[in-house]
Design goal:
alpha+beta, Nucleotidyltransferase, domain 5, first zn-finger domain of poly(adp-ribose) polymerase-1, 3 domains, 29% strand, elongated, binds zinc ion
């Protein structure tokens, strides 16, 4: 809904071919097996599907994981920003809805029927049948009987239950763990992945989650992050510094410093440029550094 109808008509007018993609899930109401996600184009008959695992341990929220899987499916399908998206309104897609809006996709919620619904249900049953479930698929939309039968079959065998029972804890909403790409401030951190130092005023991925009621924060080098953060608060700037290009971060100044260019004081709280040149911190007024931006001509 981020792109207005007028804009969409403009795309059409411009001759860009729009596809309509339907996004649907299946199996959310069943206590056994992970949910199925599908991305479907009715006109072309394309069906792309992914399975949410029964459990996972990488401290990601359920909706966030679903959003990551949807982004991967869109990649596979080569679905673009010019296409239109009709998405199931379920909770499972809340983060994905937000992601679509934030990235200016044309989308709306939709009461699913037709191919997308059939494909999602079909994939869910195919997964159960592959695991050995001997029963029939969904009959006349009687989900309760179908799911009860599936749950009984899965829980009748401890090993099977271990493998296919949904982990409800990782799917709980209040623990909103998320990875955010941002800039470190004056405290250096230790990367959870490589155990090396993340210097002050450099890009960092922060993970927040709750464990036993306690808020926990963990940090990674951007290249060490187990997942690509969906959210970014990183503000970067490339400048010309002593004949070289230098990329740094822009953050509110946490304590009074002196500008590397003009030598004047920078007040705490002011948006300030920080970068490293040969392991030495270069910092100062944003306006001083902005004047030394490399020109696009000399590139
Ligand atoms: Zn690291
Ligand atoms: Zn200055």
């Amino acid at each position: 809904m981020a792109v207005s109808k007028a804009n969409r008509d403009l795309f059409l007018f411009g001759g860009i071919r729009l596809k309509t993609w339907y996004v649907e899930d299946a199996g959310g109401g069943c206590r056994a097996f992970g949910e199925i996600l599908v991305l479907v184009c009715e006109e072309t008959g394309e069906v792309y599907s992914a399975t949410v695992p029964v459990t996972w341990n990488h401290k990601m929220g359920w909706e966030e994981l679903v959003c990551q899987l949807m982004i991967k499916l869109m990649d596979q399908a080569q679905a673009t920003i010019h296409d239109q998206y009709l998405v199931c309104s379920g909770n499972i897609f809340h983060t994905y809805h937000k992601w679509l809006t934030d990235h200016n996709y044309t989308w709306e919620t939709h009461k699913m029927d037709g191919l997308a619904h059939e494909a999602a249900e079909g994939e869910f049953h195919r997964m159960a049948a592959e695991a050995g479930f001997p029963g029939m698929g969904l009959q006349e939309r009687d989900y309760r009987s179908y799911y009860t039968e599936l749950e009984k079959w899965v829980s009748s065998d401890p090993e099977r239950k271990q493998k296919y029972w949904k982990d409800r804890e990782v799917r709980k909403k209040p623990a909103v763990p998320r990875y955010v790409l941002k800039s470190n401030l004056r405290t250096s951190r230790t990367c959870q992945h490589c155990n090396k130092k993340i210097p002050p005023f450099s890009p960092v991925v922060e993970l927040k989650f709750r464990k036993d009621g306690r808020k926990i924060r963990a940090f990674f080098h951007p290249e060490c992050s187990p997942t690509k953060p969906l959210k970014t608060q990183l503000d970067q700037l490339e400048v010309q510094w002593k004949g070289n290009k230098l990329t740094g971060v822009i953050v509110p100044c946490p304590e009074e410093i002196h500008c590397s260019i003009c030598g004047e004081a920078v007040e705490p709280g002011q948006r300030t440029f920080y970068a490293y040149k040969d392991n030495k911190l270069v910092c100062g007024h944003l306006h001083c550094f902005e004047q030394s931006k490399p020109s696009s001509e000399t590139g």
